[in-house]
Design goal:
- The chain is an alpha+beta fold and 675 residues long.
- It has four domains: 2-63, no CATH class; 67-424, Glycosyltransferase (Alpha/alpha barrel); 439-520, Immunoglobulin-like; 525-659, Hedgehog/Intein (Hint) domain (Endonuclease - Pi-scei, Chain A, domain 1, Beta Complex).
- 27% of the residues lie in helices and 24% in strands.
- It is built from 13 helices and 33 strands.
- Strands 21, 24, 25, 26 and 31 form a five-stranded antiparallel β-sheet that branches. The protein has a four-stranded mixed β-sheet with strand order 13-20-19-16, with no helix packed on it. It has a three-stranded antiparallel β-sheet with strand order 3-4-5.
- Helix 10 runs antiparallel to helix 11.
- It is elongated, with a radius of gyration of 38 Å.
């Protein structure tokens, strides 16, 4: 029984009856327990130490946690076990049990993976929690990626306090469970690279295993194990399918097929070598000569039951399997919890009870599952009062049902916290979505003059017909993307190169493309370029102002017309051209060359450009200058007109016919004040 004080601090009362009075006895007589109609509890007993009559009253609201309170308690325990020190390699690591000392000394990669899954489940219920559960999960994964071994593996244990500590063995389970958490957490390029390296380690273990099975990994001397564990193979099966899913996202179909083929070999090996043909249970180990081994009993089979992962193996979906787990591990305890088995026949484990509940929920045997959960919750192993360090949550690893002995309170392994959260939510299914990613139609890169409008729609489709969503990120300032119409819109306002990320998603897989939008400076001339005015005089372009009358050239009628300056523009350019030693213009300014408008930067020596008298001047030399210069342009108002009725948008610069191109940004409606 337990009660909470103000919903924050927890108080625990463990009342044990013992026929043989000793110093551990709390009560001499069986306590009297009464429960009223509202499920409030009153307990009274005689204290064996001083003969005093003692009683406790528990209000129902104090001793019963709701679902969210349970989940938050365990998620906060996972957070408490995480080491935070941005300057240390172990930053983000989740120790396998809580320890106040730093840095962490028992970091098990697979337990970090399971803790990440627990934090993800909690984040779905508490998305605004502080600290953020998803942020802490990402920190743990960042740590795992950072310490991955060169061969793609993870060691079985890392000790950051004792350089000679830890375990140098490398089991496939460590890699596989990290990969599963990686997949559940979500795609990132660095995670995919890490997953590919881990896949290579699994491939190496498969090459050294028995008939397609994954061997037990590497020993401390880097030699491969001769044993093939159902543990490693069950998790590796799903890890390889997860890698396949991400490979399809990246379009790496060859690698995806390699992962799929390797997973198929594992599944074939599980079906053919681990299944006990006369029973519903499975062998733990097959050696590299095909011999089946129990390794001291069937104990570890439950701890890593394939049903927990929904392995599509022969007999796993059979309800008889659930009955066998119940009769073999649950019935002997007599209280709903699960025993370890043959090796430690008197020990009962919350972690095993929760994992068995996963299997029972999947098999529809909810009564077995709920009995296991109820035992764990009502056992004395759940840390519902602050420990000596003030930490709540977590589950002591086991209890001996004969003498009630147990490990020290600090032995509260983080993977059990995940198993409890998953059990409270009705079980946990690791799901790899076996579908093809959606397809984003190719998008051309864009180029526009500053001030121009960039507006386009993106298109996508899904091979299976799944509903897809559209998204765009890294938008330039002022740009928008409508997720409903799939339209990108931007009135450009800044010269530069911008890379926008577009993607389509079916909810699980994505296709994406990075599109480059180049915003170029508007065509201009350098200061000093003479502009022909309507009265026949000339004025330097930097002195042209709004309202000035200039002469334009109608290329359709081959005659001069008058026009008015509507707007002027000035900006900086970092390069320009000098043509025929007299004309200084930016490379993108259009000139009329042999019947069409061509940017001067695209012309070459020998080409001809139109002059104000209707003749063509041959280009004899072009010099490219890289230097910062202020440049100028202006727009005319269309008071003239071409034969087609349109505005010629031209003027005469240094005797040559040039296009003014409409100025959108920046523009000035009054005379500029140039520095």
């Amino acid at each position: 029984n337990f009660s909470k004080d103000g919903g924050v601090a927890w108080q625990y009362r463990d009342i044990r009856i013992d026929d043989n009075l000793d110093e551990t006895t709390v009560a001499t007589n069986k306590p009297s327990i009464s429960v009223d109609s509202n499920e409030n509890i009153f307990v009274a007993w005689e204290d064996a130490r001083n003969g005093a009559n003692t009683d406790i009253y528990f209000d129902r609201g104090d001793y019963i946690l709701d679902l969210n309170e349970k989940i938050k308690l365990e998620a906060d325990y996972l957070v408490a076990c995480q080491y935070l020190n941005p300057g240390h390699i172990a930053h983000g690591a989740i120790n396998d049990v809580y320890t106040p000392a730093t840095p962490p000394d028992y970091v098990v990669p697979r337990e970090n993976g399971m803790a990440i899954l627990g934090l993800l489940l909690a984040d779905g219920i508490f998305p605004t929690n502080e600290p953020s559960y998803i942020d802490r999960a990402n920190l743990s994964m960042d740590y795992l990626v950072r310490v991955q071994e060169l061969d793609g593996s993870w060691k079985d244990e890392y000790d950051y306090r004792d350089p000679s500590g830890g375990r140098d063995t490398k089991s496939p389970t460590q890699a596989a469970e990290v990969m599963m958490a990686m997949y559940a957490l979500g795609y990132q390029d660095n995670r995919y690279n890490s997953m590919k390296a881990a896949v290579q380690f699994l491939f190496d273990c498969q090459d050294n295993g028995y008939n397609g099975l994954i061997c037990g990994g590497k020993e401390a001397d880097e030699s491969f194990s001769d044993w093939n564990w159902i543990t490693d193979n069950s998790y590796a099966y799903w890890a390889l399918l997860a890698a396949r899913g991400w490979a399809l996202v990246k379009g790496e179909t060859t690698f995806a097929q390699e992962c799929e083929d390797a997973a198929a070999l594992i599944l074939n090996g599980i079906n053919n070598y681990f299944k006990n043909s006369s029973e519903v249970w499975w062998w733990q180990v097959v050696d590299n000569w095909g011999s089946r081994i129990n390794n001291g009993g069937i104990i570890d089979w439950l701890n890593y039951t394939p049903r927990f992962l929904d392995i599509p193996a022969n007999g796993v979906n059979n309800p008889e399997l659930g009955v066998w787990i119940h009769e073999t591990f649950q019935v002997p305890s007599g209280n709903g919890g699960c025993m370890w088995g043959e090796r430690h026949p008197n020990q009962e484990y919350p972690g095993m009870s929760f994992q068995a509940a996963f299997s029972w929920f999947d098999l529809g045997q909810n009564d077995y599952a709920n009995a296991a959960i109820n035992w764990a919750e009502n056992s004395s192993l759940w840390q519902l009062i602050p420990d000596e360090h003030g930490i709540l949550g977590g589950w002591q690893d086991w209890i001996n049902i004969n003498d009630y002995s147990r490990p020290l309170p600090w032995e509260r392994y983080v993977d059990t916290s995940f198993y409890s959260i998953g059990s409270w939510l009705g079980g946990y299914d690791f799901t790899v979505f076996d579908n093809n990613p959606p397809v984003l139609s190719y998008i051309e890169n864009k180029a526009v003059l500053v001030g121009g409008l960039v507006n386009f729609e993106i298109f996508g489709n899904d091979p299976e017909g799944d509903t897809i969503t559209y998204n765009a990120t890294n938008l330039p300032y002022g740009a928008t993307f409508n997720q409903e119409t799939h339209i990108f819109n931007w009135q450009t306002n800044q010269i530069g190169t911008y890379v926008v990320h577009f993607e389509v998603s079916d909810g699980y897989l994505v296709d994406f493309q990075d599109v480059t939008i180049t915003v170029r400076a508007r065509p201009c001339f350098l200061a000093g370029t003479p502009i022909l005015l309507a009265d026949g005089s000339q004025k330097p372009i930097e002195q042209i102002k709004v309202g000035d009358m200039i002469l334009a050239y109608d290329v359709d009628k081959n005659k001069m017309i008058k026009d008015k300056v509507k707007a002027v523009s000035v900006h900086d350019a970092d390069n320009y051209l000098i043509v025929n030693d007299e004309l200084k213009a930016t490379p993108n300014h259009p000139f009329f060359s042999e019947g069409k408008w061509v940017e001067i930067g695209n012309l070459k020596i020998g080409d001809k450009i139109l002059k104000q008298d209707g003749s063509y001047q041959e280009i004899k030399n072009i010099k490219k200058i890289k230097a910062q210069e202020k440049v100028y342009n202006f727009e005319v108002s269309a008071e003239g007109g071409s034969a087609s009725g349109g505005n010629p948008h031209t003027y005469i610069a240094n005797g040559y016919v040039v296009h003014n191109r409409k100025i959108i940004y920046p523009f000035m409606e009054a005379e500029p004040n140039y520095p």
